[in-house]
Amino acid sequence: MTQNTRRNLMLAAAGAATGLSLPTRSARAQAAPWPSKPIRIIVGFAPGGLTDAYARMFAEQITARYNQPVIVENRLGAGGNIAIDAVVKSPADGYTLLATTTGAVWQNRVLYSKLPFDLAKDITPVTVFPSGPLLLAVPERVPARNTMELIEYARKNPSIMGSYAPASYPHMLAENFNKLYGTKIETVQYKGEAPMWVDMGSGQHEMAVGSYQAYAVVQGKGVRAIAATGLVRCPKFPNLPTLVEQGIKGEICRLDGGLAITAPAGVPVDILEKLSKVAVDGNDTPRAKQLRENFAIPDATKGREDALRMWRDIAPIWIAEAQAVGVKLD
Predict the structure, then answer these.
(1) Residue-wise over 245-258: b if at least 16 C-beta within 10 A, else e?
(2) By the 8 A CB rule, do 104 and 258 touch?
(3) N or C: which terminal CB in the chain sees fewer CB atoms within 10 Å?
(4) How many CB atoms sit inside 10 A of residue 27's CB?
């Protein structure tokens, strides 16, 4: 054995011993407790709406609990798919979360034919913040005082439904009216609620559906609510009947969605549970109570167990509704 060969073998042995005695940088990083660095929440919609409001509140709650900064990043477009794509391609380590509507993570799987991800497999729920009853509203120039009168109006007059995103509740409701009642309502998509209601206030379309807080900006300015969605009346309008109470057909009228916080599939369950607990524990904070008051939301989030139930029991109904109306967005 030459002197060089002997030296090389000794160096190799020393390196192996070092590798056994000291953890690698990757192993040390993996062993770091969560969270040990900033967290990102990617929001699929514009600032000013309910999804963004919940995301920013949740970010503050995480920071208060774990003393880690949380960055909220709005990535708009493609019915929420741009934000979803960014999240599912992120490491499944609990440092990247998605805030979007349940419609985007449920219905988009049938509303879009070609997606670069599998919504049935690539994301997992953390919690669902309830959106509460939404409001169906019309401008004063539309003579309808209830939903059936609006439907009769839309049968005879070209009408536009303002929608805050493709596959959102107003989009699905317009398609429901078209299918079951013979209306020919065109849906115009906005990048969030705020610009939708601005145009509604100026009379640029015949109807819109959205949250109370966003609607309140134009309330009393030539826009009036004629129905609430879901099975519970809006706390701010206790005398306003729901679509169901007004006899409007379609399963969509009975459904309540929400604002979902999700993570890439594969995030450890203990991290998902910690995040869920932050949301539930935050229900009674002044910020959370004020948000629900502002948006007229009677309920608070119940956490991950309820989110998993919604994924199992409610999501299939929304997906079936999207399939039934036959809408394709690509």
Answers:
(1) ebebebebbebbbb
(2) no
(3) N
(4) 9
Going from the C-alpha of 158 to that of each of 13, 142, 153, 162, 225, the distances in angstroms are 81, 12, 9, 13, 20
Contact between 275 and 94 under an 8 Å Cβ cutoff? The reply is: yes
Cis bond before residue 35 (omega within 30° of 0):
yes
Count each helix (H run) and each strand (E run) in the chain, helices first.
Answer: 14, 10
- Closest CA relative to residue 148, chosen from 232, 253, 256: 253
- Amino acid at the residue 138: V
Provide the strand spans (E) within the chain: 39-43, 70-74, 96-101, 123-130, 135-139, 159-163, 185-189, 207-210, 223-228, 258-264
Q: Render each residue's pLDDT in the chain as its tens digit; 330 residues.
A: 445 444 444 444 444 444 444 444 444 445 589 999 999 999 998 887 789 999 999 999 999 999 999 999 999 888 889 999 999 999 999 999 999 989 889 989 988 988 999 999 999 999 999 988 999 999 999 999 999 999 999 999 999 999 987 778 898 899 999 999 999 999 998 877 888 999 998 889 999 999 898 898 898 899 999 999 999 999 999 999 999 999 999 888 988 879 999 999 999 999 999 999 999 999 999 999 999 998 899 999 999 999 999 999 999 988 988 887 777 777
Give the residue from 233, 266, 268, 257 showing the smallest Cα distance to 319.
257
Answer for the pair 161, 205: CB distance below 8 angstroms, yes or no: yes
Q: Which amino acid appears at position 328 of this protein?
A: K
